[in-house]
Predict the 3D structure of the following.
Amino acid sequence: SSPDSEGVTPELEKAGLLNKTKIAEGGRKLRKNWNPSWVVLVGNSLVFFKDPKSQNPESWKPGNSRPESSVDLRGAQLQWANDLSSKKNVFKLRTITGNEFLLQSETDSLIREWYRTIQNVIDRLDKE
Ligand code: I3S
């Protein structure tokens, strides 16, 4: 069984600052609105926190601060999407419910690391 079902706090895989915009909700296209977001990968979820500058590291910990939104990575799809933006280093995350997000960083190594880590979680969930 998963750690979650045993009441253990899910493992924090990664956290950091990325630029984020939601581009679709339930398959319906949305107007882009890029904003910096504190992104936390914990358990099977990608959790977004708003306005990272107003927060301190303590408040970023899961449970200490209310997330703006949260994405279930089960069945999600990830792809590089430099064709969807004039920005560099953009990838698209599509949830099973048809919500689509673009995530971006100016730092090549950082965005590649995020892509790899999220894809690993998706792959792990696919095998369950
Ligand atoms: O894909 P788009 O529509 O060209 O995306 C740009 C616009 O959303 C723009 O907003 P307004 O159309 O409301 O002015 C944003 O400011 C840009 O950042 C969007 O493009 P990029 O290439 O940055 O993803």
In short: The first strand starts at residue 12 and ends at 25.
